[in-house]
Amino acid sequence: MSYGILALLLVYQHKVFGQDGVAGINEANQKVRSYFDAGTELMYAVGAILGLIGAVKVYQKWNAGDPDTGKVAAAWFGSCVFLVVVATVIKSFFGV
Fold first, then answer.
1. Which of 17, 23, 66, 89 could, after both became Cys, cross-link 61 (CB 3.0–4.6 A)?
2. Of the candidates 77, 31, 25, the residue with the CA atom closest to the CA atom of residue 50
3. Where are the transmembrane segments (predicted)?
4. Could you give the angle at the alpha carbon of 77 between the alpha carbons of 72 and 78, nearest 5°?
């Protein structure tokens, strides 16, 4: 008899402390969306730094007369464009 009451109390207590799942999901959604502006700005900053490093590499290859300078420059330019496009698409996709 006492085990049945104990089980009933545990179930009742669990239901009392249960929270609204939709409210938690909406709160998490708002928190994640608030990070997108900072995240895209961080992506732009990292892209600028990597772009400068890539430009220096291309310049060094060009001065050294390396035959694959065009391929390295195209890869560098493509990666810069990709980073900007990804940041913009993420920002517009999530409606921030």
1. 66
2. 77
3. 42-60, 72-94
4. 95
- Rounded-to-integer distance, Cα 5 and Cα 13, Å: 12
Answering whether pTM is above 0.70, one says no
- Sign for the pseudo-dihedral over CA of 42, 30, 17, 14: negative
For 32-68, what is each residue's pLDDT tens digit? Answer: 877 877 878 888 888 888 888 888 988 888 898 888 8
Structural domain spans, the chain: 2-93
Q: What are 35-41's contacts with CB under 8 Å, separation 24+? A: 36/90, 36/91, 36/94, 36/96, 37/91, 37/96, 39/90, 40/87, 40/88, 40/90, 40/91, 40/96
